[in-house]
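Thread: Modeling a multi-component assembly for a lab meeting

Hi all, long-time lurker, first post. My supervisor asked me to bring a structural picture of a complex we are working on to next week's group meeting, and I have zero experience with this. I have the sequence lines for every component (426 residues in total). Could someone generate the structure of the whole assembly? Inputs are pasted exactly as I received them:
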Amino acid sequence: MISQPRVVSRSTLKRLPLYLHLLEKLMDQGVENISCTQIAQEFDFDPTQVRKDLETTGAVGTARIGFRAATLVVKIKEFLGWDNAHDAFLVGAGNMGKALLGYKDFEKYGLNIVAAFDKDARKVGTRIFNREVLPLAKLPNLAGRMHINIGIVAVPAEYAQGVVDLMVGAGIRAIWNFAPAPLRIPEGVILENARLTQSLAVLTNNLTKVLRK
Amino acid sequence: MISQPRVVSRSTLKRLPLYLHLLEKLMDQGVENISCTQIAQEFDFDPTQVRKDLETTGAVGTARIGFRAATLVVKIKEFLGWDNAHDAFLVGAGNMGKALLGYKDFEKYGLNIVAAFDKDARKVGTRIFNREVLPLAKLPNLAGRMHINIGIVAVPAEYAQGVVDLMVGAGIRAIWNFAPAPLRIPEGVILENARLTQSLAVLTNNLTKVLRK
DNA sequence: TAGATTGTTAATCGATTAACAATC
DNA sequence: TAGATTGTTAATCGATTAACAATC
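Re: Modeling a multi-component assembly
Sure thing. I ran the full set together rather than chain by chain. Output:
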């Protein structure tokens, strides 16, 4: 029986992968148990915050000892949906698309990019990291047949909305967007923007402040 | 005279690029003025939130009319440090590194990747998007001579800390990290993580919840 | 036992949202 | 003028942090 997933903040969700990476590293080193205090120290977080984050995954610890690392890893992966592989389609075989196709670690995070699509006839038919590039027109039919839930958008901004509409029409439920464009999606579809420019904005604003001093 | 940069939240900093993209799009369409209400509608934000965000950039609007789009663009760019180009070094000429080197839009955001470095001798000497790949050993000397402030890390996790130490030792003030590794940096250096796995975590957790229904 | 750590409740802090007067 | 929008202050909401009893 699966426990009711409670409301969890975006902030917590973004910290969980950090804990996961650390735990896997420590397990490689033979560590068996770890306390919230230790995890908190590693990231300069508040120990109570770490404890609450872990609590949302349903993990249970032991006083004086902490949490079993192996259990934590399983709990976090379960909670993030990284325990079962999700098949995904990627659209846009440009630089970003290629980088994503070549990113081996996605498998570890339950993401399996099974095919790439492009509207450019010159790219269609080529293979990138062992996946054939297919014509965009084939996406709807294939997505339905293969029960694809995740669509990755790696096209230029001006084509992004069109691609998303195609994906949504094909029954795709979650969009991971790498295009710097605001996208419209219908109710019930999940949109997650992986916008590099937001991260860059934080960096350059901070840098400007430091340099101004 | 430059106004004292007040404390600004990370959330605000991340919304500003969204406004900027929208404003540039609207200006292309000939729009001259825009109200917070309109911007808010576009992103499903609260109008007051948009107003406060714009306020932090120092922009001033006019009752009944709104803000001049052209002025807003300038103010936001100034505030984010996107008005002056920052030269940057990139380390790691793998897939992610290549994608970043090929990302034309960075110039618009004041980021100018002037050189790429790699420790792999087979990559050294090749050219990627018109930048020569240099041996990593040359970074310290060049960074000092060229007054480079920004270092982009696009190497595998296990090499990331070493690269960062090298960069910091070479006087680089801000690190943009694409490696899935927790990095240690000394006081005064800025670290911004562009972690794809965090974004993926939010996506898959939400998807899992939806699919479970 | 002693004391570190969990689990949990309460206090604080900061960001978001609401309310409203001033203004064009 | 009338009314939409700015600018600003106050209220709300949620996340972070503090406090502390229970536990191993």
